[in-house]
């Protein structure tokens, strides 16, 4: 994989097909949840296994007597004002909560979620927490992932690097990130994740989002990629590093990728549509009442402090993230308070902290977790609630544990993780991107 320094930000123009993707995703949300959806059918959901290893069984038939269960989804935004530190800190706090409340000192975030989606640095976090290590467990704990992000922030979020590096040394910045990801993930691929994973980038060949998906990697060899390449693609800042050219393991699928935040900074809507349409792995998930969704933001950038094209791409991504939050909140409707939680700062990060040191960003992230949580309200914008972001994480952690405990007495699994498919087919919402990809 090589950085294409000759291709720059000028390739990313107003011809983006973001409107098409947004329309298709939100149409699914509206058709499924807002108009004419019968929530009574949601009671046919069943219970998931807590094991990391795949279950080699066909989806069981639905029985009216089954106890309803909820599919648990983790979604992580792209860079934001904190370069991913807010999301990483949130996950560290959540894992600490899970260990304390469950009584299991070795509890991992990946053990309490059934699917994860992450963009940019959020995609890197998803890879760290959900890629299987040599011992069969996830490679990183949440604390280790936070330390990784702190230690390597400038290598991953190149937009925060110095102006000389951005202008003069595209290749050097890309090489440092590639070496970091190669050392971290080695030869691991999408197939080596412990749970379903979705990590988007933007493909400049097709001018469309491309979603790296564990489900599609297991079904079609042409869509399995090395995790180090996936992380490089989803975090490739178009204004700093430029696009990266990459191929699937078998060499058949080729993309020229830039940061997934260009078109899908908040992957929550894509994650929901993936789960609802992937009936092989989530056979009894019929609607939002069958979901527990945690969406993690990374702070909001001060528009007045942005002076580079890359910064404006970031601002646009953050605006799109808010739009997705509004749409998802609308889809959840009355069950939003219990089933959907969004963690984000409730004010723009002060200019004095923009682009400062990592300790500053860690301190700001801790302050953001102490802020009052902001909820989107159906047709009424946003409101500040009494609970802080930390309070929300604690409550959500309790719900995750209750779901985990309830599954121990369940008859059938909510999630049927697959290992392989006898015939190639597309399982999920990733159809929007993968079917349009360039193959050679």
UniProtKB/TrEMBL annotation:
CDD domains: Pat17_PNPLA8_PNPLA9_like
PNPLA domain ranges (all copies): 75-272
Location of region: Disordered: 416-440
GO MF terms, alphabetically ordered: hydrolase activity
Entry's Gene Ontology BP terms: lipid catabolic process
Motif (DGA/G): 259-261
Protein name, entry field: Patatin
Keyword flag Hydrolase: yes
């Amino acid at each position: 994989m090589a950085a294409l320094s000759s291709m720059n930000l000028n390739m990313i123009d107003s011809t983006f097909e973001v409107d098409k993707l947004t329309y298709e995703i939100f149409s699914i949300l509206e058709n499924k949840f807002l108009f004419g959806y019968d929530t009574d059918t949601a009671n046919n959901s069943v219970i998931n296994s807590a094991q990391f290893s795949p279950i080699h069984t066909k989806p069981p038939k639905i029985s009216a007597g089954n106890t309803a269960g909820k599919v648990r989804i983790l979604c992580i935004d792209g860079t934001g004002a904190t370069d991913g530190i807010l999301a990483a800190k949130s996950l560290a706090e959540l894992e600490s909560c899970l260990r304390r409340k469950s009584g299991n000192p070795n509890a991992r975030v990946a053990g309490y979620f059934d699917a994860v989606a992450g963009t940019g640095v959020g995609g890197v976090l998803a890879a760290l927490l959900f890629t299987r290590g040599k011992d069969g467990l996830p490679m990183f704990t949440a604390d280790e992932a936070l330390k990784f992000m702190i230690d390597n922030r400038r290598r991953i979020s190149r937009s925060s690097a110095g102006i000389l590096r951005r202008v003069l040394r595209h290749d050097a910045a890309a090489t440092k990130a590639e070496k970091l990801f190669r050392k971290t993930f080695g030869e691991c691929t999408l197939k080596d994740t412990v749970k379903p994973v979705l990590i988007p980038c933007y493909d400049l060949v097709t001018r469309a989002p491309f979603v790296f998906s564990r489900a599609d990697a297991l079904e079609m060899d042409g869509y399995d990629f090395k995790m180090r390449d996936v992380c490089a693609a989803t975090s490739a800042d178009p204004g700093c590093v430029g696009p990266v050219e990459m191929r699937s393991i078998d060499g058949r699928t080729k993309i020229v990728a830039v940061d997934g935040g260009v078109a899908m900074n908040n992957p929550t809507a894509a994650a929901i549509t993936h789960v609802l349409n992937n009936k092989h792995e989530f056979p009894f998930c019929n609607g939002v009442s069958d979901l527990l969704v945690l969406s993690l933001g990374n702070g909001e950038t001060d528009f007045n402090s942005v002076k580079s094209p890359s910064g404006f791409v970031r601002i646009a991504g953050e605006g799109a993230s808010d739009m997705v939050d509004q749409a998802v909140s609308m889809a959840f409707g009355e069950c939003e308070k219990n089933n959907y939680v969004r963690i984000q700062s409730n004010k723009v990060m002060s200019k004095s902290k923009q682009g400062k040191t990592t300790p500053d960003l860690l301190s700001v992230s801790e302050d953001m977790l102490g802020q009052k949580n902001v909820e989107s309200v159906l047709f009424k914008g946003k409101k500040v609630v009494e609970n802080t972001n930390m309070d929300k994480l604690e409550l959500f952690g309790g719900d995750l544990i209750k779901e985990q405990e309830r599954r121990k007495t369940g008859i059938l699994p909510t999630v049927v993780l697959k290992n392989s498919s006898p015939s190639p087919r597309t399982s999920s919402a990733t159809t929007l991107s993968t079917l349009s990809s360039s193959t050679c």
